[in-house]
Sequence to fold (171 residues):
Amino acid sequence: MTDALMRFGGVQLSHNPKELVFRRKNNVQMKRLASGEFADSDALADLGSVSGKGELFGEHCFDDLEILMQMCKNKKSAILTMPYFKSVIAVPKEISLSAEPRENYISVNFDFAVIEKIGVKAESPPVYIAEEGDSLWDIGKTPDEVSVIASLNHHIRDINYLEEGTKVKLR
Fold:
């Protein structure tokens, strides 16, 4: 089990969602509770989407919401990290408020389309196209992941800054 928080791109939820809903490509719906209980241990193998409700706290929560909304508007893919599961590459289909925002607090509904499970062999390696202000820290969730991604991308000289349009191999 892990105590890692759910993260998409450079935005991390303040607390893990109490419930995530997984929809497989064949439209079968499954739920995972906060305890990690799940009926199908290989649920992400044929995943179509992940949805749920999360919370953003702190003085930067409105900035984080704006980042998510822009990624949704621009259909920008990034690594989606969820507790108890391997990371996937996803695109936000919908990001919306689930309650009236308060000072330093936002409750959001999210729905992500899963593009690819990381680690599953694909015809060509997944590539992330950097946008202005991106860094490898926005793509990787841990220092180890950032190190692995950096080792795959010898053309990247500074892990803290990626030029817009830079292609980043993810595996």
User: Anything to note?
Assistant: The chain has two domains: 1-120, 122-171. The two ends are 24 Å apart (CA to CA). The longest helix spans residues 61-73. The helical segments are 61-73, 136-139, 143-152.
